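hey can u run this one w/ adenosine monophosphate bound, need the structure tokens asap thx
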Amino acid sequence: MRTEYYHDTSEEIAFAAALLRNGELVAFPTETVYGLGADARREESVRAVFAAKGRPADNPLIVHIAEIGQLYEIASEVPDIALRLAKAFWPGPLTMVLPKQDCIPEVTSGGLDTVGIRMPSHPTARALIKESGCPIAAPSANRSGKPSPTTAKHVMDDMEGRISAVLDGGQCSVGVESTVICFDDAETIHILRPGLISAEDLAPFAANVYVDPAVFSQVAADARVSSPGMKYKHYAPNARILPVDAPDFRTFSDYVSKHAVYGTYCLLFDADPEIPGIPSLRYGDNGAQRAHDLFLRFRELDEAGAKLVYVRMPRQDGAALSVYNRLMRAAGFEAVRL
Ligand code: AMP
Ligand code: MG
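ok here u go:
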């Protein structure tokens, strides 16, 4: 299959929208990462998304909409708290899991009777969804297990020849996937996957905000989990990722210097000095910058031929929790604690 490469002009967005209406697969930019889109209501199109990614069938897709009104076409119940959050955070990187309408087939929801819904803020994504007239089911546009793509080139690297088109909307501004939440009751927000919108951001909207334990530790492959995506190792580059929790740079660099082997790299904070003899990349000064850079650096480390990467451990609060979670999942939840 030839993969068309479209730019984000209104004419080419219209071509991409026509492909989606025709049941085909189009990768498109969102503010989080690039998504691999298909009409969420068409079983055979959604099956093709799973096939193109090599994604396990029980890992549900998020349905993307362009206006709040579409929420009621996708969700069969919209509690007050969900509407308040939609008004506060949409368009933006927040996905809410709600009971699904019958128009969303179980292939889309991974066999569940709920569905994740989000309204992205990226203007190209919104234009595409509007123009297509479809709710768009879209997981990240990487091959399953690879780091999520944050540029159209990453998408082409993984998906060329497997999908009908890629729409290039530049580099994603957020860089990690959306915050996914469900509601345990009318007063409780349950964070299934951390993102740029943090527990602290959500706290004013509910009596309780609960972060799922699977954000911090490995879930057994056969465990029952609130969110199927939690079970899968994810986001990993080919290199082995080893986060190192050190009280300061000196302790980190002493450890790394002692343990470095052929092909060792470091992923450092911007303010860190070099470690003599060990090549390094950097991933920012704060949670939002690290979220923006993390998947990009993973792909660069693979291109550089890194075998083992010692990573400075990010914090676990605010937006940084999303970085901590992606990093620990890439490491299979193994880390060095000094
Ligand atoms: P991705 O498409 O790679 O961004 O992954 C979407 C993630 O959202 C999945 O891996 C799930 O963990 C989560 N998710 C989507 N829909 C649901 C749902 N109905 N219930 C629980 N989690 C969901
Ligand atoms: Mg993904």
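The chain has a mean pLDDT of 95. anyway lmk if its weird
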